[in-house]
Write a structure and sequence with these properties.
Low-confidence stretches: 3-11, 20-26
Structural class: mainly alpha
Order of helices and strands: HHHHHH
Helix content: 40-55%
Mean pLDDT: 76
Length: 141
Amino acid sequence: MSEPALLDGSSQGREMALPSPKPATRRRRKLHVGHFAFMRAFVQRVDLRASWERYLRIEGESTDLRLVRSTVSWICDEFAAAATPENRLGTARLVRLDVSRIADPAPELPSLQEFAASRGLEDDSEREQIAAFEEAYGSAT
């Protein structure tokens, strides 16, 4: 039985350790202007697909929601990572908030005049109208 040949062509009866393949190095993504513009549009609740097509088409298809979500998550992580070394922990926390879970602002309330007209209070004093308005919508309004 013959000895296995080594890479240099000799056969000395010993095994040669081959170098292990290097793990595939992942290309380091970098933020660009499109990422900032997309996030601004995302926070302002501009149509997600239109914003993606305008600013991040190079990242992939807007129909792949997994890609869109992972990209938004990655951008937020990058923003937070940039804020943390600067001791801007409050900013880093804000960036990590899930803006999709933030409640919409208070519902659109009618003006005092519209409220008075809808309740038949046009002839009442403004003070009485305000009291009725606060009773209906709360005093914080």
